Amino acid sequence: MKKILLPFILLSALLTGCGDTTTVIVQEEGPTAAELFDEGRAFFNEGNFNPAIDSFNQAVRIDPSYADAHYWSGRSYEKLANNQGAISAYQAALDVQPGHSDANLRIGVVYFKSYKYVPAETFLNKAKNLNPASPYAHYFLAEIYKKQGKCQKPKSLYQKALTLKPGFLDAKEGLAYVKRHNCKAATPAPKKPVYEKVNTFQGGGKALKESEW
User: Is residue 9 predicted with pLDDT exceeding 50?
Assistant: First the structure.
């Protein structure tokens, strides 16, 4: 059954014998923002992403500064392939916590998958700087530079991703592609020696004896 937190009810009572009004605040019982967040995580782990979003959104209505609730709402939208919903939720997390490395990473990934490489690069660079141990920030930045035809930048980023996660198959394939295509194209072919063509024999030679052959 869905839990709903009702707002405070303000009751006004007229005091007997005078015109003054006393305000009595009565708080209805309901789950806290932390409880709703835990409920959302449980739904998320079960693959129930729409109920998860409902729980996370209730949590941030109670506590708008709950960055992780915004973030996991974004993760849920992303699972539902709702890119705009994911971007809005991740941005809300960053509005209250700009240094949220995971939110920077995931919003960068969503922009990347939406072919919006300029904002993707900005957020992925932030994610990489905030959490240098993330192989995914390095990998997706490498993917952007690979698409731009660059050689050294994606090569070093793929290698860093593989250092952090040796079994990262996508990074291995990206590195192989860059070496085979981008870096090969960036390496100039060696120049062939130029020989001067002589059309006429000018003389000056001598006949060789058999022993001089």
Answer: no
